[in-house]
Design a protein that fits this description.
By secondary structure, the chain is an alpha/beta fold. 35% of the residues lie in helices and 22% in strands.
Length: 161
């Protein structure tokens, strides 16, 4: 199994969450971590990926334009058979008020044929520029263990929680 953690980060908060996710994944499956800014060809980046985790900051109640443009290369069923999960960083408050990039990403990936394995993860920041709230990286690690269990991979005992 090959996993890709693809993320966009503006102030470093989403990047920190993506790194925490990738560290847990790599204990059990081959994992690549990539910022959308470094992806020139999304079809090539997704080649051979069986688990795709995509995340970004919540921007204007949803997915940022940069992240949408990066994933725009996907055809209707480009992710058929790919297991996927989404996450975001967002401000405190109900989703109806703050919005959620993860929810929008989930709809987008599902539309392109991905099998969503866990509910979207939202990790909270104190302000738009951060920092992450205390304990959010630990929550990201625990969420990632749930992803592994959902795809039938038993996490290694020494994976940090």
């Amino acid at each position: 199994m090959n996993a890709l953690v693809l993320y966009e980060s503006r102030f470093g908060n989403t990047e920190r969450v993506a790194e925490a996710i990738a560290l847990v994944l790599q204990e059990s499956v081959a994992t690549r971590l990539a910022a959308v800014a470094d992806v020139e060809d999304c079809a090539e980046a997704l080649h051979g990926v069986s688990l795709l985790i995509v995340g970004g900051p919540t921007h204007r109640h949803g997915v940022s334009t940069v992240l949408k443009e990066t994933l725009a290369c996907l055809g209707d069923h480009a992710l058929q058979g790919t297991k996927a999960a989404t996450f975001d960083t967002r401000m405190h408050g109900p989703r109806v008020v703050t919005g959620s990039a993860a929810a929008g990403l989930e709809r987008f990936l599902r539309k392109h044929g991905a099998w969503i394995v866990v509910p979207p993860g939202s990790f909270l920041v104190g302000a738009s520029e951060g920092p992450l709230d205390p304990g959010e990286l630990e929550r990201a690690r625990a969420w990632t263990l749930d992803v592994l269990r959902a795809i039938g991979v038993r996490p290694r005992e020494h994976a940090a929680v």
